[in-house]
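During the no-cost extension, the postdoctoral fellow (Dr. R.K.) reprocessed legacy sequence entries with the updated structure-token encoder. One reprocessed record is reproduced below for audit purposes.
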Amino acid sequence: MIEENVRKLFGEIPEKNAYGEKVTLVAAVKTQTPENINRAIAAGITDIGDNHAQEFRDNYPLICGNPKRHFIGRLQTNKVKYLLGRTYLYHSIDRLELAEQLNAKSLAANIVSDVLLEVNIGGESAKGGFEYGELPRAYAAVKAFDGLKIKGLMAMLPESDDEKKLRELALKMRAAYDGLNDGGFSFLSMGMSGDWRLCVDCGSNMIRLGTAIFGARNYNR
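Re-encoded structure tokens follow.
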């Protein structure tokens, strides 16, 4: 099933979005066994994204094929140590405290960590991320850190059947991406298994798919 799902997605996901940017597929591997992850990699997946730092740590030596390792979940500051120097891109820099801690630890390790600023585009109380209105201030603050490099933005759209509303929010994210981009941005990470098509249509160039690759998650693992 995993191999078939990967092949199907590669046939459906456009090589480039409407802005002429390459679309990158990140396999969201939360709760997946190393065996399942390796099956996806063998089928052609080049980027994988973890939600939990402990899973990242435990699975790290068991993953084959040298994929790019993303961290896409909410990150606690005391778990940064598990990821430092091993993470290609941190998607979920959602507060200045986390940025400060990751910056300090990156400088101590003599590395620069590539990050995305997470935006709470739907204004949802249950989700993390910078509020849309505070994004310019957050961007300026994080840009000043020598141990971090901002590579773009990340967002999760609300769960809704109102496609017009979702499209407006996705386009709003694209406008923020273009407005803040001073030439250093590479990624607008937006779109999951249920909404990736809409997000790519609206300018996303990185999508995070789990269920579409692995099927329903087993939270009893």
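Residues 163-180 form the longest helix (18 residues). The CA atoms of residues 170 and 202 lie 6 Å apart. The remaining legacy entries will be reprocessed before the final report is submitted.
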